[in-house]
Amino acid sequence: MTKTVVVYYSGYGHTAKLAERVAQGAAAQLVAIDTNGDLTEADWATLDAADAIILGAPTYMGGAPWQFKKFADASSKRWFGRVWSDKIFGGFTNSASPVGDKGATIGYLQVLASQHGGIWVSLGFPPANAKASTAADINNLGGSVGLLARSPSDASVDEVHTGDLATAEAYGARVAAVAARFKPAA
To answer: Which CATH topology does 4-182 take?
Structure first.
């Protein structure tokens, strides 16, 4: 059995809601980056022991927030020892606008995984891009690299789009399934 971990930062709770659904789909453990951008030593050990790591961060001002960047910078200790090399990675981001420069953040997450020598899993679902498409559809924002979600600025945590939540769960399952295919037999 593979071990998947979702490590994320959430400023207002919307990204946490997505992280929960990604974790549900992947049968993964959640690791939250705190408001100071820190993890506990136990959290780091959990990530080190994972077969797959799914990175999550909201998009603020065209990129991941400083708390996530602090975590990423601290992961350089793992980079030096190649601790996360050949792990399976995925990622997701959320912002208030339909585009909201989410591409910059998801690209950043993919580069971070690649710097660690990881193997990135794309979203794998076609976009919901017909006239009849709605926010309730899977991949309603049309992402390919990873999960892109939208939470309007005046929406509560309980109003995250149902399509984004369904996409989050399906993407978590996809990452876990890929990790299972790559795990060597015991």
So the answer is: Rossmann fold (3.40.50)
